[in-house]
Amino acid sequence: MNKIVPSIDDAISDIRDGATIMIGYFGGPGEPPCWLIRALARRGIKDLTLISNMPGWGRTLIPVFAEKMKHLIKYPSWWDDPGLLVENGQVKKAICSWASGMTPSNVNDFEKRFRAHEVELEMVPQGTLAERIRAGKANIPAFYVPTGVGTLAEEGKEVRVFHGKKYILEHALTADFALIHAHKADRWGNLVYQGTSRSFNATMAGAAAVTIAEVDEIVELGEIDPEEIVTPAIYVNRVVARPRDEVEKW
Known about the structure:
Blueprint: H1 8-11, E1 20-23, H2 34-43, E2 48-51, H3 58-68, H4 83-87, E3 91-96, H5 109-115, E4 120-123, H6 126-138, E5 142-145, E6 159-162, E7 165-171, E8 175-185, E9 191-192, H7 199-204, E10 208-218, E11 238-241, H8 244-249
Parallel strand pairs: 1-2, 1-8, 2-3, 3-4, 8-10, 10-11
Antiparallel strand pairs: 5-7, 6-7, 8-9
């Protein structure tokens, strides 16, 4: 069994217009699959439904954010996030927990497009978003949560009372493709992550029909301690390595 594909472009070659895609991302600390994102941008695939913690800063705001946070986070020159797809007009809808820019004076492209009625938005509390994705992976169709009761998050949803407390019915999220980033993989697709970059990358693995892992390094079978594997190979369909020279520069 070998899930390694030869190139970034090959890894996303069957993603079509109108696809629903998950992209592992959590702002600065949760490193996205930058090369897979750029490959999608090059192909010009459109009408995408994006499921991500946020639709991204994009190339307009990443330099601004990098300057503001330089004492905490170092951004490499090759960094791109889902905002690149938004800026290209490839996203028709986002399902996320944070959609705006950093401040009222630093507005991302998604917020501009949303205010212009060019994109759709489904806002989901962050913990609920993670659980909806996890439920999709576990084939659990729906579940109840107390988060959002009495707010806009409750509108149009079933509410039930358990033990005297109100709960909202939330439905699982799945996708056609999940694009994630991991630190290391073997050819079977076992994954380990590095630091905070685990975030939604690990959560989304297996929640889509096809999970594609962009990794810093591919190692031989047996080099990853079984006790350290975070995402088992069963949740991964394709593995592709980042360009070694770029990763080593970083």
